[in-house]
Amino acid sequence: MLICPLAILNMPAYAEGGLKNYTLGKGIRFSNIQISGYTTIKAVIPRDGISELALDDLSLYMNARFNKFLNPFFEAEIAEAPIYVEGHNLFSGLNTKFVIERLYNDSHLTNNVTLRLGKSLDMVGEWNSIHAGPLVPTTTRPLTSYRSFSEFVTGASLLYIPDNEEIPSITFYWQPGAEVFKKKSRVAGRRFRDIKGLNLSWNWGFNNLLGLSFQAANVVNDGLVLKENQYLLGMNIHLAKNGFHLQSEYTRTWLKNPMESRVNTNETGIYIQGLYDINEKWAVFTRYEYFKDRDFIRGSHNALAGIKYNPISPMVWKLEYVKQWGQELNISTGIAASLSVLF
Amino acid sequence: MGSGAEYQHGHCRIIIGAFLMEQGILHMARLTIMAFLLFLPLGMSAALADDKLYIIANLDVPINKLSKSEINRIFLLKQTSWDNGLAIIPVNREASSRVRMRFSNLVLGRSPRSLSSYWNQMHFKGYMPPIIQESDAAVIAFIQSVSGAIGYIHSNKVPDNVKKLGEFE
Questions:
Q1: Residues A257-282: pLDDT tens digits?
Q2: Residue A17, pLDDT score
Q3: What is the rounded distance in angstroms from the CA atom of residue A44 to the CA atom of residue A5?
Q4: Strand duo B89-93 + B149-155: pairing
Q5: Closest-CA distance of chain A to residue B53, Å
Q6: In A, residues 228-247, which contact B (CB 8 Å cutoff)?
Q7: Distance, CA of A86 to CA of A63 (rounded, Å)
Q8: Confidence class of residue A226 from pLDDT cuts 50, 70 and 90?
Q9: What is the ipTM of this complex?
């Protein structure tokens, strides 16, 4: 099947072993096409609520490098498919669709500048751009990493990656109109359109990162396009030394022409998280987060602590205890655990 | 009787002598094996130390030399095309390889484990991680035949039909 397209694109045909020498976590590579994926099974046992075991993500992604201008990337996934919900039969309520999460092409205009066209991940914060279960530190996703902005951008992005660490990576992005291949929103009824943004990221010493984000968007509430616009300022930092990782994200959002029902004309989120690698397999982590939503009077607090175990590199098991107080948003007090595998 | 006793005594001496000789040979053999096992890694290290880490590329690659920071940029997927637009195809060795360990520490300045984690993250962000080849011979054959390919080998000479872009002791 690959022979014809490869011939058309005048590409060298080579394989990395294909299925024969498959190694877990490395995907399958045929010539310049790589197919990989990940899956996460998540269990949530809230103190006051219904326990659930779910297939949190089953994602398949493919990227290809044909030439300087044709480098497509595609990701499709099944998300939040319940396996067992307390009080229900196994697999009851399973009504999950396969959704296209990312679909874009990268054209490398110069060694440092890339034009990305299509649907890609929003650049606000570190968590949203690397949100795969096996690659994130905790099972519970911080509210700050998704509530105030669209997780995806459909349109054009211009990425600049500098030659040295003193200059930041710069990304401009623009989404005219609405998102394509809409996924179920994590915040009921809240969506964004006409998104314009800028992200600056300073990377140094391999794992260290400082990011600054600015974004303007039009807010859509329950499918209604509003006059309400929002302006977001985001900051994120990741410092790593001797097995210790300190990560934090902060967003502040201002609303212009807010809906009458809004309780606040701004929204604030911040979390600070520490992770320590005890050895190559075990790590411990803790986090505190505060989030003040636009629609609720009270602020929401949550804190968690847990352990992470990598029996083999592409497989991660996490167990954490979460304490939530103040306004309850998408996080509840209780235990959360997950098993994630890159394949 | 006397001669019989002498015979018996002599026979016993012969047996004891043969036994001691056998033990001596066994002892020598053990020492030799132990010495071999003990010094084999040193010998291998010495052999590796004599060889150089060569950065090699396909003949189509439009440059003749790369600095350590440029190699870093390529293997950390920050530069994805050569100056003439040809796609860069970095080639890595398998995770358990001693050469990969040496390349990771000496050239990229990171542990293989942290690099694996980095490539997983970059792959999720849409970048192609380096392709794996499981021997120096496979790396050479790949680089000889694939335009834009760049990799590293441990050798005492630069192979034919590839371009040397750098070397490290």
A1: 998 889 999 999 999 999 999 998 99
A2: 53
A3: 45
A4: parallel
A5: 22
A6: none
A7: 39
A8: confident
A9: 0.84
* C-alpha angle A34-A37-A42 in degrees, rounded to nearest 5: 170
pLDDT band at A337 (very low <50, low <70, confident <90, very high): very high
Place of tokens 């959002």: A253
Stated pTM of the model:
0.80
Beta-bridge partners for A268: A252, A292
Residue to mutate among B124, B128, B143, with most A CBs inside 10 A, is B124
CB atoms within 10 A of CB B159: 17
Torsion angle (degrees, nearest 10) of CA B133, B134, B135, B136: 20
Q: What is the mean pLDDT of each run of 10 residues along chain B (169 residues)?
A: 49 57 59 49 48 93 93 90 87 91 92 88 90 93 94 92 92
**Chain-chain contact of B83 with A111 (C-beta, under 8 angstroms):** yes
Contacts of A61 in chain B (CB under 8 A): 124
Nearest-Cα distance to chain B for A86, in Å, is 33
Helix then strand count (H, E) for chain B reads 5, 5
